[in-house]
């Protein structure tokens, strides 16, 4: 491996902070943005080189965001303070995604549901079942996080699903959960739970609009989610 190039040895216009100031954050690579978070290198190793090693080790920003502090610190040049800075940055990004819900987004398609929940779902290592409470205009009232299961199963009861919907006077709900495996294909259990909840909603006049399962896109699968309504499971 070649010798690490220190940031202060680079021409001014190629240094990450100067590039960001001159051209905006979108002009920087992930490596350069991480180097800014790290601030400095260590013992002759540049922050850019450390960032490069982080990306090589964790492969994706998703994996890097999920990594616990002790795993981050296994990368040479990442001490306690740098690991904390990285974890703080990714947590802020997650909170920013959550703030979007305060703008009462319109959730009239499964794509919009996936857009709302995608960043949060990426950081989950187990299945989490969510109920999105909507008003008569299909705008979000709130998100109720019901249960966190194992990698393979969730326990969901109709009374838990509809309790907050009744309290919030929701007109309809959308069900959602993630598949940590990355494959959003519904299981037999997913289908059964969905049909049970549709019937329960009909009894109390709260419509279940959809059940969206979020996974990850691949070269063979362009969408990172599926809609059980689009798949035909909402019809007799």
Structure characterization notes:
This protein is α+β, with helices and mostly antiparallel strands. The chain has two domains: 7-97, DNA polymerase, domain 1 (Orthogonal Bundle), CATH 1.10.150; 104-227, Cytidine Deaminase, domain 2. Helix content is 42%, strand content 14%. The chain contains nine helices and five strands, in the order αααααααββαβαββ. The chain has helices at residues 16-23, 30-38, 47-58, 61-66, 69-72, 80-99, 110-122, 158-167, 188-203; strands spanning 128-134, 140-148, 172-178, 207-214, 225-227. The chain has a five-stranded mixed β-sheet with strand order 2-1-3-4-5, sandwiched between helices. Strand 1 and strand 2 form a beta hairpin. The mean pLDDT is 86.
